Amino acid sequence: MWHHLKTVKTHCKQIIQFYPVFVGLTSYWHDYRNAEFKRNTISRLLILAVNIIGFLWIINHDTMALVTIIKYDINKVMIYAVWSKFMYIILPPIFAFVQILVCDTQFVNLKKRLQCLELQCRTRIVSCKNVETALRPLRFFKYFLVVFMHLIIGFWESQLFEKWLLLPIFYVNIMSLSSFWLLQYFEVIAKICRLFYYLDKHIRQLTQNLTNVSDDIDDNMEYRMCSEVIWIRQRHFELCRLWQELEAMCNWQLFLKRLVNLVSCGTHFYATMVETRQLGLFNALFYDVADYGPKVLDFFVTDYLCELTKNTFSELELNIRDLNMVNPALQKLSRECEDFSLYLRCRQLISFNSNFVSLNRRTWFGMMAAVVTLSIYLIQSHFIVA
Question: Which domain holds residue 296?
Answer without folding.
Answer: 74-385
